[in-house]
Amino acid sequence: MIPLHQAISIVMESGNRTTTPEKVDFIQSLGRVLAANVSSDLNMPPFNKTAVDGYACRMADAYQELEVVEVIPAGKAPSKVINQGQCAKIMTGAMIPQGADCVLMVEDTKEISENRIAFTGKSVKSNICLLGEDIKKNDIALTKGTTIEPHHIAIMAAVGCTQPEVSAKPRVAILSTGDELVEPSIAPAMGQIRNSNGHQLIAQVIKAGGEPHYFGIIEDSEDATRAAIAKAIAENDMVLLTGGVSMGDFDFVPKIMAELGIKIHFDSIAVQPGKPTTFGTVNGKLIFGLPGNPVSSLFQFDLLVKPAIRKALGASETTPSTVKLPLGSCYKRKKTERLALIPVEINDKGEVNPVNFNGSAHIFAIANANAVALIPQGVAELQKGDFVDVRPL
Amino acid sequence: MIPLHQAISIVMESGNRTTTPEKVDFIQSLGRVLAANVSSDLNMPPFNKTAVDGYACRMADAYQELEVVEVIPAGKAPSKVINQGQCAKIMTGAMIPQGADCVLMVEDTKEISENRIAFTGKSVKSNICLLGEDIKKNDIALTKGTTIEPHHIAIMAAVGCTQPEVSAKPRVAILSTGDELVEPSIAPAMGQIRNSNGHQLIAQVIKAGGEPHYFGIIEDSEDATRAAIAKAIAENDMVLLTGGVSMGDFDFVPKIMAELGIKIHFDSIAVQPGKPTTFGTVNGKLIFGLPGNPVSSLFQFDLLVKPAIRKALGASETTPSTVKLPLGSCYKRKKTERLALIPVEINDKGEVNPVNFNGSAHIFAIANANAVALIPQGVAELQKGDFVDVRPL
């Protein structure tokens, strides 16, 4: 049994950047991870442009009556040079005409007669955005490793990157073991239970940015299990096994893992729930034996598998994975040898309240949970208002 | 000019739950919003089952040698009744045989001879999960309005809900106005600029749970703009317009909105950036005139449009939309009449640092931003360590 932080370190040191880049349409890249920098193909602004609606003129002429020589809408190049005593009516975003070095805001002007205006404001400002002030041609607009959000799509649009290179999704095999399992569409017979864990893992893999490959419920025999695990390793970057990691007679998975040359790095973690979690590697592939209970499996995926998927994608995460929030009620436990993982609900005041929870098989308890709190080893009691480490689910 | 909180209230009071439910495969329902409660079709556990690997026996017999009468793997019904002095070897998750009222953990037993074991532990616990202890048949497992996360997929799997009813995605039209705009794949000619805003909005609509319908760049004439807006209203639940809401000659959108019978509820908000934001309604449809600058548009979507989409979906959000985090550096500004929206980066210590920012057209500045901080009206200066309201992007 090793501490959680050590388990996380072992997994992160074992994992590599495993995926190759692929090009996708920029709108489809939402949520993907950039595999290469995105550079600008132009200067931004591409020309000196006005930040306001108004009249472009020479700053030196601002306090005299001005002749309006043309109207410059956004999207059209000016046709005239601005000379002394002249100005051009100009719309926000339009190009500053040659000769002008400021724009008088339309609100600060009055029309004197047809084609003549005067400034009525107090002080003259430039109101010009200079060529290349935001970004210069060939500058890096977005860095490799960025997880693409809507504002990154805007940046891609601005620099003409309509086919960004993103990391291919790592292939993650999901194998469920246990003769008692049936698929969700089947009404369980006596002694059977639906496979909730396997489908939860499919959804977790999708959300983490991986590509799930569901191998279904593996027949509970040594040969069938060995064959399925071998195939899963051959075809995927990571393999997730659920069930089959406790001490029962039918739980031969650890034996098979050894036979397949999988080096086991740990087989239990000092957490509650989720202690019987196995991690091994073979040929650069990561193999996780996750607990059979959906709640344990949910948390162990979040703590161990998700970071490995993000690393395989080359993601440079910026948002912290845990936040410190105050407890909304007191918390007590008896045994303190392990770090406790508690499903909690963060309320709209930002307070953390544990959900009512029968144990790691009690998946229904976490319908309303939106985060998991980490209670350190040795801590038996916390008061309302004490801060705890919380990971959003 | 109205305060931001009032603008948000007006939008939220105007918006209705507009979408109809549709059935989807449960794995595909990830990220969607439940349109109906999900009930359990069974008791969970469906039978009294063991929480551990061990020997099922009568608690009264625990301290005597026991005869092993059968082996009960998970998934198979017991075939024998446990009588006095007897036990059955049993695997985690398997059904408790009739007669037994506890399970001795395998770690707390020893084999005496073939088919005979003895308890070596200190105290006997039940180790039984009772029928219906987690959920009872017809109980509500997931409530309407839940945004579906991986742990909800596990719950659906457990209760056999493979075709949940989710809210259809609200249809959101996106119209860009401005003759200076060209699409991202085109190299802008003199005086032109790429349409980053429209594509950012497409991505924001997708992320918020809506279905974007991009109308492209509308020709900058009154007739074309009127026709496009009328079509967008007819075919969609919401319409987003970008550009065309400041004071230039070619900015006739407010006039067209009035002609189309759109009731304007506000046309500016006391925020910086994002002041020229228009909101109107017609026939229960919501019409947003968003600022032409991508940074302003990004924030105004987040504050006004996203909540309207979530309401249309019937989502009961549980996670707070803002969190209070400490500033990592001091912050100053000159004008304080408006609430300031500042793009910030939350670092791995949970500190908030404003990103370097030229103004609302400076989309490149926010490549590394992962949140927006709200600095209240009247506040000119904040110190390192002061807490600010932050919304993750």
Topology:
Two copies of one chain form a homodimer.
Chain A: H1 4-14, E1 21-23, E2 38-39, E3 49-50, E4 54-57, E5 66-72, E6 86-90, E7 102-105, E8 109-113, E9 116-119, E10 128-129, E11 140-142, H2 150-158, E12 165-167, E13 171-177, E14 181-182, E15 193-194, H3 196-208, E16 211-218, H4 222-235, E17 238-242, H5 253-259, E18 263-266, E19 271-272, E20 278-282, E21 285-290, H6 294-312, E22 323-326, E23 331-332, E24 339-346, E25 352-354, E26 371-375, E27 381-382, E28 387-392
Parallel strand pairs in A: 5-6, 13-16, 13-17, 14-15, 17-21, 19-24
Antiparallel strand pairs in A: 1-12, 2-11, 3-10, 4-6, 4-7, 5-9, 8-9, 18-20, 20-21, 22-28, 23-27, 24-25, 24-26, 26-28
Helix pairs in contact in A: 1-6, 3-6
Structure notes:
The structure is a homodimer of 393-residue chains. The first copy, chain A, has 393 residues and is of the alpha+beta class. Chain A folds into three domains: 4-18 and 169-312, 3-Layer(aba) Sandwich (Molybdenum Cofactor Biosythetic Enzyme, Chain A); 49-129, Molybdopterin biosynthesis moeA protein, domain 3 (Beta Complex), CATH 2.170.190; 323-392, MoeA, C-terminal, domain IV (Beta-clip), CATH 2.40.340. Helix content of chain A is 19%, strand content 29%. Chain A has six helices and 28 strands. Chain A has helices at 4-14, 150-158, 196-208, 222-235, 253-259, 294-312, and strands spanning 21-23, 38-39, 49-50, 54-57, 66-72, 86-90, 102-105, 109-113, 116-119, 128-129, 140-142, 165-167, 171-177, 181-182, 193-194, 211-218, 238-242, 263-266, 271-272, 278-282, 285-290, 323-326, 331-332, 339-346, 352-354, 371-375, 381-382, 387-392. Chain A has a six-stranded mixed beta sheet with strand order 7-4-6-5-9-8, with no helix packed on it. In chain A, a hairpin with a 2-residue loop joins strand 20 (278-282) and strand 21. Chains A and B meet through helix 2, strand 15 and helix 3 of A and helix 2, strand 15 and helix 3 of B.
